[in-house]
Specification:
The protein is α/β, with parallel strands linked by helices. It contains eleven helices and five strands; from the N terminus they run H-H-H-H-H-H-E-H-E-E-H-E-H-E-H-H. A hairpin with a 2-residue loop joins strand 2 and strand 3.
Length: 343
């Protein structure tokens, strides 16, 4: 899902001002047919139509743009749970749906009453009362709109992750060189700097090898403290659990990152997952031969890692294709059985 496409949330004062301004302009329309009472009836109903047609679309667009949690892949469901108040999110979406229905009913009832009415002043009273009630509904919706606007700002920090692609997660302590590695693997240009926590969100990049498209995710650095993870570290853990098919763990044995090697090793040992883990040593240009020789953990060059990842990606896509074919064959068989039963 591309959360960047979620449109701006409307502001209550602006939409109320626009709707009533357009209604006033419609009320000045002169080319109406019929008797004087019919003209008034048509004019008041047209003004109500304008208010409805101006106020409802922004609400309907918000409900269209903002995703329902259950329609998203598990990764995004859990990411939302980590970053926003899900109970308030659901209340806000439901509140806008309820407000839309109330406004539709107020409009429908007012128009019906106006067309039954034969008194000019009573028609205008019905219109005025309906405008007031609709304005009250819109104003009661303001907390929902404000919450969704804050949620939208958070959503726009979400990466556009392709959950159906073979995915590699670059993992490790802050400032060990994860973003630099992403830039080497893919055409992506993630921000790099000589201080910790440069990566504030999940960066993504893509490359193709042996015909397989590989998605690479550079997650924010974590500090090997499972019981005290902040939101950024929890997002990194979420990528490991829900998205990654393989992990590249980056060691900075020079300790130029500011974190002792022992801490980096402790975090590495926590990765007890049923996923391939490749060890990569960064900043080799500042390491001595003695430092490299003293690093006992089995590690690979970047080219070796890319070759192994490509092999696994090819197998992954072949398995995905086979599963889709099986699903198609099952659906076709069920459709044929239904046809036979109908005959």
């Amino acid at each position: 899902m591309n959360f960047q496409k979620i449109g701006e949330v409307p502001k209550v004062k602006e939409i109320l001002h626009n709707s009533f301004r357009k209604a006033r302009m419609k009320g000045r329309q002169k080319d109406l047919q019929g008797s004087w009472i019919e003209k008034i009836r048509i004019k008041e109903s047209l003004k109500l139509d304008v208010v409805k047609d101006t106020l409802l679309p922004p609400f309907e667009r918000v409900n269209r743009d903002f995703p329902l949690e259950y329609t998203l892949p598990p990764f995004y469901q859990r990411l939302m749970e980590l970053t926003i108040d899900m109970a308030a999110y659901k209340r806000s979406l439901k509140g806008l749906v309820d407000s839309t229905r109330i406004m539709q009913k107020l409009h429908r009832d007012a128009v019906r009453r106006i067309f039954k009415c034969t008194n000019r002043e009573e028609m205008k009273t019905i219109s005025t009362e309906t405008y007031g009630r609709i304005a009250s509904v819109i104003k009661r919706s303001e907390p929902h709109l404000l919450f969704l606007d804050s949620a939208r700002k958070i959503f726009r920090t979400y990466p556009d992750i392709k959950t159906d692609m073979f995915t590699v997660c670059i993992y490790g302590f802050p400032n060990v060189g994860k973003s630099t590695l992403l830039n080497k693997l893919t055409p992506s240009k993630a921000l790099t700097a000589a201080y910790a926590f440069t990566t504030k969100t999940i960066n993504s990049g893509f490359y193709t090898q042996d015909g397989a498209i590989i998605q690479v995710l550079d997650v924010p650095g974590t500090l090997a403290r499972p019981d005290k993870m902040n939101t950024i570290e929890l997002q990194a853990q979420l990528v490991l659990e829900e998205v990654a098919q393989a992990i590249i763990y980056v060691f900075d044995i020079s300790e130029y990152c500011g974190y002792p090697f022992e801490n980096q090793e402790r975090l590495f040992k926590t990765l007890r997952m049923r996923k391939p883990i490749f060890v990569y040593v960064s900043k080799k240009d500042i390491l001595t031969q003695e430092q490299l020789a003293g690093f006992a953990t089995k590690h690979k060059t970047l080219d070796e890692i890319k070759a192994e990842i490509a092999t696994r990606a090819v197998v992954f896509y072949a398995e995905q294709t086979a599963l889709k074919l099986e699903e198609k064959q099952r659906e076709d068989a069920e459709a044929r059985e239904e046809e036979i039963d109908l005959d």
